[in-house]
Amino acid sequence: MDEPVICDSPVTLLYITGYNYSGSTLLAFLVNAHPLMASTGEICGPANFTAQSQCSCGSPLDACPVYREIERRVGSPFFQLDGFKFGHRLLSIPPTLRQRLLFGSLRNTRAETLRDWARERLPWARAVAREKRAVYAGFIKGAAALFGVSIVADSSKNPMNIPFLMKADGVRLRVIHLVRHPAACVFSAINRSPHGVAAAAAYWARNFDTVERVLERVPREDWMRLRYEAVCLEPETACRGLCEWIGVPFDPAMLRFRQAAHHIYGNPMRLTDVAEIRLDMRWHTGLSEEELRVVAAITGSQAQRCGYHFDRERSIAGCEAACAP
Ligand SMILES: [Zn+2]
Description:
- By secondary structure, this protein is of the alpha/beta class.
- It has a domain at 11-180 and 223-275: 3-Layer(aba) Sandwich (Rossmann fold), CATH 3.40.50.
- The chain has helices at residues 24-32, 65-74, 97-103, 109-119, 123-147, 161-165, 182-192, 197-215, 228-233, 235-246, 283-286, 289-305; strands spanning 11-17, 37-39, 151-157, 171-179, 223-227.
- The protein has a five-stranded parallel β-sheet, with helices on both faces.
- The termini are far apart.
- Zinc ion binds next to α2.
């Protein structure tokens, strides 16, 4: 493979945050198809990573030549595909009390700011944070050098990674808050997870609040809110808006996203050959009136701020505009 092993110049990390089932894998594919950008999918990895977890190229991750090469370039015992050290050990938050206290949500900005300040000063905590940042930055810079780009997208979504990654050396963080109608997300969640309607709606609202709270710490020009519905209804307009914001010319190759080489980790969409961008509105018939009322009661104020309605006829009226309020 070509040298350098990692990219020496600053790399832009395009971090996609939001709720699960919001279309982040589709967005990762669109970004990846641009010749000046690349996506590796969910860099922080899934909780259930195994050696059989598949890259979008069809190989198990530990047999994918691209992931293997990034692993070589990272060169850390904390990122090893053979040892299942993808994700948990790279950056996501293992379910231990110490890790949650060091990196997780405390549901309060003041408490998190104080915690982050202390984390950078207590020697043992600083050592853990430095190690995680070094592995993460190595992954981003290694991927950038390998693909010959200076913009790498990560669709890990966990908002608590954002303040942590703002301090990564040689990485400029730009954040996309990808939102999707809460009823659509809840419909996906109840069909693919053990959550019921109320629990899934509460999780959507809590995730939205956490993202909004975290974004208060990010310079306004460094984040944007993008509606999944806009990506599906007007993909070219949405891609043009994204390119303008990130500072690269739009390239029509983005709309032929399946034709570009891809090595993306994410939801099962990565393993299909679907090339058509189509808005999934199954929640219109899949949720009962009562279930929709429950979702509206729990997520209504946040949904309204994104321009969503709960009247089925008007649910996504005006969502062609890419940027949500
Ligand atoms: Zn691959």
